[in-house]
Q: What sequence folds into this?
């Protein structure tokens, strides 16, 4: 499939997740069959004011491309200024976050708060599209709450203002990640626009992806939480789409080996101290369902070195 002038090898995407979809995890997912990866969301104001932490979040490597760099903000002028300023950055697609539900984001009118103001939302998209030399995409939710479900209206505005694709999470902002994702709203968005539509929400298995595709006819599947500790999901979905065959899930050894590799890659990228802290959540995800893993989880959370963490992981492989 194509998004603007960007060729996507397969229509299965790693969705953006703050604190999760960093460079290391994106590279791993790309290696295991992901068609396109999205960065953690980056503050447009952080770019505007040259914040060093923001620059680190924007780091992209050749081996993970194509990459969508996701920015958030609600000031059309700043968003456009930033989009133009980063044209020489090595992202392939510029994505606008209009779906993040967290209080610290929406209280500033950013993320899913923009769903409450379609007129402003349209101006933001238009400003970014005008300034960006890269294709622009947008990620939205079903709506703000059950009384203001407006994803179809918003998707039409997004298309009309020049975006080349839209991703929709089938929950409202008020739901956060509770309840079930509404795939019917994804279907309605797909029927309402001509640009590619990525469906997002509650894809945790090959069969989930198959059912979402069948129900919504979406162009692409976006996997987010379903990839936590399970980067193999991309290979398994794409293989099924091509062959109709469901590959076996990863073995315990494969899970532990990948967890160790993730640890080493993260230490190389961020240093041992930061990597150990960040790996605690990844270890819990990789080890979900692994026999006897509960016994070492507390120890993993108290580990003070990469070597100690690796030794603990090795005990599960025996």
A:
């Amino acid at each position: 499939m194509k998004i603007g002038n960007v060729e996507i090898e397969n229509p299965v995407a790693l969705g953006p997740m703050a604190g999760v979809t960093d460079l290391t995890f994106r590279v791993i997912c790309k290696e295991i069959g992901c068609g396109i990866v999205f960065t953690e969301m980056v503050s447009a104001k952080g770019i505007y004011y040259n914040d060093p932490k923001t620059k680190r979040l924007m780091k992209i490597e050749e081996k993970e491309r194509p990459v969508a760099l996701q920015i958030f903000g609600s000031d059309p002028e700043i968003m456009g200024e930033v989009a133009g300023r980063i044209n020489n950055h090595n992202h392939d697609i510029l994505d606008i976050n209009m779906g993040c539900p967290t209080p610290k984001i929406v209280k500033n009118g950013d993320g899913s708060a923009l769903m409450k103001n379609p007129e402003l939302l349209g101006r933001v998209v238009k400003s970014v599209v005008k300034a960006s030399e890269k294709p622009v995409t947008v990620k939205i939710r079903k709506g703000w709450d059950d009384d203001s479900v407006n994803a179809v209206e918003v998707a039409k505005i997004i298309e009309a203002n020049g975006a080349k694709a839209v991703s929709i999470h089938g929950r409202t902002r008020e739901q956060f990640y509770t309840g079930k994702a509404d795939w019917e709203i994804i279907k309605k968005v797909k029927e309402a626009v001509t640009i590619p539509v990525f469906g997002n929400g509650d894809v945790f298995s090959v069969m989930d992806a198959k059912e979402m595709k069948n129900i919504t006819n979406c162009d692409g599947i976006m996997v987010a939480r379903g990839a936590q500790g399970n980067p193999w999901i991309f290979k398994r979905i794409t293989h099924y789409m091509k062959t109709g065959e469901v590959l076996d899930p990863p073995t315990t050894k494969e899970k532990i080996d990948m967890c160790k590799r993730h640890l080493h890659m993260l230490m190389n990228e961020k240093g041992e101290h930061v990597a150990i802290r960040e790996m605690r959540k990844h270890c819990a995800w990789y080890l979900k369902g692994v026999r006897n893993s509960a016994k070492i989880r507390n120890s993993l959370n108290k580990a003070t070195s990469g070597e100690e963490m690796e030794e603990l992981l090795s005990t599960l492989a025996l």
